[in-house]
Amino acid sequence: MNVLVDDLLFSESRLYSLEGEGALARLHVEAWIAREALSDLGEMRVLALADTASLDLDDMVSRPVTLWTTRADGSRYARSGVLRQAELLAGDAGMARYRLTVVPWLWLATQQRRSRVFEQRALLDIVQHVLDGYEGCTSQIADDVQAYLADLPVRPYTTQYRESDYEFLARLLAEAGLGWTSVEDEDAPLKHAVRIFADSRGLPEDPESTAQGVRFHRADATESRDTVQELARRFRQGVGRVTVLGWHASGKYAVGGEASSGATGVAGSSDTSASDYDDTLVPEWYEAAGHGAFENEAHAQRQASVVLESVRARNETFAGRGGVRTFRSGTRFRLEDMSPLGPSGEEGFEPLFALDRIEHVGVNNLPVASQAALETQLGGVAQWLYYDAPPYVEGAGEEFGAAPGDGSATTRVSATARMGVQSEVSAKLMPDAATLEKAKTVGYANAFDAVRCDRPWRASLAGGRGARFHAAATAHGVHTALVVGAEGAASTDNNQEIHRNRRGDVRVRFHWQEARSDGEAHSRWARVAQRQSGAGMGMTFVPRIGQEVLVRFLDDDIDQPVVVGAVYNGRGEGGTPATPGGRTVQEADTSAFAAARDMIPSGQANLAGGNAPAWHGAAAADDAHRNAAALSGFKSKEFGGAGYNQMVFDDSDGQQRLQLKSTQSATELNLGHIIHQAGNYRGGVRGTGAELRSDAYGTVRGGAGVLITSYHDNDTAPAGEATGVQALAKQADKLTRALDKGAVDHEGVRLAAAAGTDKPDTSVLDAQKSPLTAMQAALATGVSGEDLSTAREDAAERNPQAGDGKVPHLGDAAVFMAARAGLVQTAGEHMQITAGETVHWSAGQHQNLASMGSLRVHTGQGLGVVAGVQRGGEPALSVIAGQGPLLVQAQQDVLTVTGREAVRVSSSSAQVELAAPKRIRIATAQGASIVLEGGNITINAPGRIDVHSADKKFTGPTRIPYALPEFQVCKSCVLDAHESVQSITDKA
Q1: Where do the domains of the chain lie?
Q2: What is 479-567's CATH number?
């Protein structure tokens, strides 16, 4: 065995060697396999030998390791990576076999699953942010990337949802048309770097190709250079036109783009001019990218071009085999001596290829005796040369739009496989058989897929329906989130409970969002769905800061959230406790509900943070809230305060109720079974019917009239039914006309409500009807019940109700108040009744005017009081001053007292005085008179004058002055008299 160990350790002449630290330094390469591809992790598995089976496997894992390959010219070529897995396969008699799985460091990104949001970030900034999260891992951005992304808009929102960092990066890079590969970097801590590139035509050239190109030649021991021995050209009928269409939500317009290859559709044909292009032969791919996919048409056009370039790069590929030891994915090479192949004769064809997928197999050049001894001692090599993961499957490599191949493996060997134990391995995990056999013979062989270098290579994404291009994580179902403020807080210390943008979006923080780090958003804007919406119409629901909302996503796109509702998440003071597993942990505590009163709520607070419902059924008992979940409706809340507005539907058995309430000035409308309500508590009964009340100002306005009445027929009667009111109006009109006739007969002042105002039978409402008659016409109006415009014409014409299809309606903008029993109008202080035309009061029986103070009746014209026109009474007219004087004056004209029979003026306890400043004359119709004038008393009679007295005594003349009342001058009367050129002396 010592001889065997010496053969292994003598590595200067070996084809492969391993470089690493710690336990890795004691390993020597036996054989290796590798798979790699552009924008794919790939893996390399190395079988290594050591002189001990006790190497520390944990010490190997996560260390950088480099596989060195000796080239034909004696130089060495490196392939570096991170050790993902170390296994001890076999060990015996001082010799052990290990298997190492080496991957690019970007594999670490598959081990971290995140959910986070980026806001207003450029794509490259997001990519760099993710890569910077891996300390000690090197990444490079090719020089052409910045220019390639220059016209790409800033991404408003980019969400990583339940994705590994690798999945997130892969879809972002593929959508932008970027690729990545692993390159060697001696200065990097892990000896390699991840390089992101935009144009595959700028990939570095393979070292073997740099000098004279790679020869297309047979493999022979006499050859001094590595060569490609087999090359096959493959064509695939692909998509010739790509059309994309998205919706710009903010601009409310569709955004589309189209890209065409210009190919005829015949496999293998080259591009032609637009005039030769036959679009009937070329398949077209149409993709509705959904909401927010494109910022503008240039963005859509760019995306369509990226997809088409991805398809075109795979429509023509080259499959080859060879032994070029420096080949690796992400490099390009020039193939020489292609004369036997068709492409060499094509005009414009340049034999420059970019390597995409490669499979390597290497077997170290150990002595034959050593190989035999190892196989006897540790078993054959081939049984351990298989991959840990199936080969790379790219959706765009399949027919575009078709389902990709099945990438599952039948059985995988565990990462902790025991020595000597081997399970059945799927064929997909095995290396290519021909390549393996070739490597056993010559030490190294590869199989590769390459693409033409004159066409850009673009990555594509494989989905459940095949290749796709719109990169976005899918989010199914409903998610929950908290509404937050501008700084991401779910609570506020002031009355700023709403944070919205101009479109009405709110900021939300999903429960799955991880703690924010620099460069990540604490929340994002989300649209709010409404139950109804339209131009200047609809319903408005504004989630407030701290509310928990339900969120769905347009097109299942995680970057297009829409708030569709809200949920309660509080924990109340009482009610039913939790019952985990159906077990009762504690009894329900309802004591908090018992303190509720008509005006005092209870049990409304939360024991834990959150939002509890305004009404609930957790306190249905009579000694609690007496609410068996019968309350429903809507309740808002004052900003930063306890005030609210609410609409409550109470569906309690036999006690249906509707309340519209605002705590502002205790204003509310109650309909149905009226009760006290304090929060969730249903209090005592207050009555039934309807109540409209407010502690502030109230008004009722009707532009076409208002009818307030206690007359009702049935629920099917028209809204304007006023039969009872019309009957009262007719009675009032009949009574008034009868009294007006009596006033005419007795030469009194006529009643304007019956006779007319300015002219006979006229009023403001109707130029041909008196006020009361016009009122009746307004009440009796009927309008068409079928057409609104006709109804308005009928109302203006005051057409009476007649015929089918007519409904009652007021003919004028009048206010009618009528009560079947009684109507009371009271005021605690003042009441004013004013009319621009006529105020008419009438009663079928009696009418009383009572005043604790003064009763004043003022008129601008006449004042008429006519009594007893229908039947006499005792007395017909009574004017009594219980205390103080009774003063009757005619300040500007003659005061006339007339009686059909006797006129008596008497005093029960004092004298009756008649006084005038000039003359007093008492006369009879037969000519007798007594005249007091100028200090004389003159008695005249047509016949004899008799003076009867117990004592006759005449004394001399005496002057006794008498104080007469002084009347103020009526200025308006003076002006009127002046204009009419009449003397006013008699009215002084």
Answers
A1: 2-103+357-405+413-431, 113-199, 235-316, 479-567, 591-699, 707-818
A2: 2.40.50.230
The residue among 149, 141, 243 whose CA lies nearest residue 195 is: 141
Cα–Cα distances (Å) from 26 to 23, 52, 97, 372, 380, in that order, read 6, 9, 12, 22, 21
Nearest 5°: CA angle at 688, between 684 and 691?
Answer: 95
If you ran DSSP here, which 8-state letter would residue 398 be given? S
Burial bucket for residue 975 (CB in 10 Å: 0-12, 13-18, 19+): exposed
Kindly compute the dihedral angle of the four CA atoms of residues 355, 359, 360, 361, in this order, to the nearest 10 degrees.
Answer: -160
Quote the crossing angle between the two packed helices 771-779 and 723-745, to the nearest 10°: 170
- φ and ψ of 396, to 5 deg: -75, -15
pLDDT in tens, 644-658: 999 999 999 999 999
AA letter at 68: W
Give the C-alpha distances (Å, rounded to integers) separating 967 from 251, 705, 892, 964, 983. Answer: 82, 46, 8, 10, 18
For CA atoms 168, 169, 170, 173, the dihedral sign is positive
> Phi then psi for 827, rounded to 5 degrees?
-140, 135
For residue 463, what are the β-bridge partners? Answer: 466
Structure tokens belonging to residue 436: 């393996």
Query: Fold for domain 113-199?
Result: Phage tail protein beta-alpha-beta fold (3.55.50)
- Residue 231, class by beta-carbon neighbours within 10 Å (0-12 exposed, 13-18 middle, 19+ buried)? buried
Residue 414 pLDDT: 32
- In whole angstroms, give the CA distance from residue 974 to residue 281: 109
CA-based nearest residue to 468, from 373, 376, 551, 404 = 404
Q: In the predicted model, is pLDDT for residue 309 greater than 80?
A: yes
Stated pTM of the model:
0.77
Residue keyed to tokens 């007319």: 756
Mean pLDDT of the chain: 84
Q: CB burial class (10 A; 0-12, 13-18, 19+) of residue 683? A: middle
Residue 902: what residue type? Answer: A
The three-state (H, E, C) secondary structure of 716-784, written as one string: CCCCCCCHHHHHHHHHHHHHHHHHHHHHHHCCCCCCHHHHCCCCCCCCCCCCCCCHHHHHHHHHCEEEE
CA distance 663 to 502: 29
The domain 2-103+357-405+413-431 is classified under which CATH number: 1.10.3470, 3.40.1620, 2.60.40, 2.30.110? 2.30.110
Summarize the confidence of residues 737-763 as an average pLDDT: 86
As a whole number of angstroms, the distance between CA 7 and CA 51 comes to 12
- The residues with which 146 forms a beta bridge, in sequence order, are none
Cis check: omega of the bond before 340, within 30 degrees of 0: no
Give the model's confidence band at 443: pLDDT under 50 very low, under 70 low, under 90 confident, else very high.
very high
DSSP-assigned states of every residue in 570-604 = -EESSBPPP-GGG---S--B-GGGTT-BTTB--S-
CA angle (509, 123, 103) in 5-degree steps: 100
Note the pLDDT of residue 643: 92
Indicate the pairing of strand 479-484 with strand 548-553: antiparallel
**Proportion of the chain above pLDDT 70, given as a percent:** 88
| pLDDT bracket for residue 866 (50, 70, 90) | confident
Angstrom distance (rounded) from CA 182 to CA 34: 13
pLDDT tens across 472-520, in order? 677 889 999 999 999 999 888 888 899 999 989 999 999 999 877 788 8
Token digits for 334?
Answer: 């020039």
Residue 386: other Cβ atoms inside 10 A: 20
As given in the structure block, the two tokens for residue 321 are 């085999």
**Beta strand residue intervals within 337-407, DSSP E:** 352-363
